[in-house]
Amino acid sequence: CPRSALTLLPGPDLSRESGPVGFLAQSGGMSIDFAHAAKWMGVRFSKMVSFGNGADLREAELLHHLAGDPETKVITMYIEGIKDGEAFFREMKAAASQKPVIIYKGGLSRAGARAVASHTASMGGSRVIWQSMIRQAGAIQVADSEEMAQVTMAFSMLPQKSFRNITVIGGGGAIGVTACDLAETHGIEIPSLSAELQERIGNHLPKPGSSATNPIDVANPFVGPQPLREILLAAAEDPRIDLQMIVSLLFHYQGLAQAMNLSVNTVTPFRELAQAVRDVVDRTGKPVIAVLPNVKRGLESMDVTEMMAMARQEYVNCGIPVFDEMHDAIRAVARVNTYYGGRKK
Question: b vs e for 248-269, b when ≥16 Cβ sit within 10 Å of the residue's Cβ?
Answer without folding.
Answer: bbbbbbbeebeeeeeebeebbb
